[in-house]
Here is the input.
Amino acid sequence: MPLSLPELQARIRQFRDERDWMQFHNPKNLAISISLEAAELLEHFQWRSFEESEAHCRNEDARQEIADEMADIAIYLTEMADNLGIDLLAAMASKLDKNAAKYPVEKARGSHKKYSDLE
Ligand SMILES: [Mg+2]
Here is the structure.
């Protein structure tokens, strides 16, 4: 049964506080941790060709490891939002609105150009 974001945040808080780790979880350390876990995700693709990367993602063991790294990133991100009092779901929805304005379909469809280079 999937957990809601507030339930996940409560679990993360409990996990952290049972270990007395809040003392280490300042914004700087959490931002670093998010980046480090993202680097662990990248390790799955380092040196692999595009085709090898796709195949790697279909391998059952690799998929589980990739899911674990994605979860590590999401856990730190979720905790950082919780600690800073940022509503992560609202922030994501707001940023999608901003992205939609920056990348109008009629200009961006099928293009990988940065918004500032769209004509
Ligand atoms: Mg990890």
Observations:
- Residues 37, 40, 69, 72 surround magnesium ion (CB under 6 Å).
- The radius of gyration is 18 Å.
- The mean pLDDT is 96.
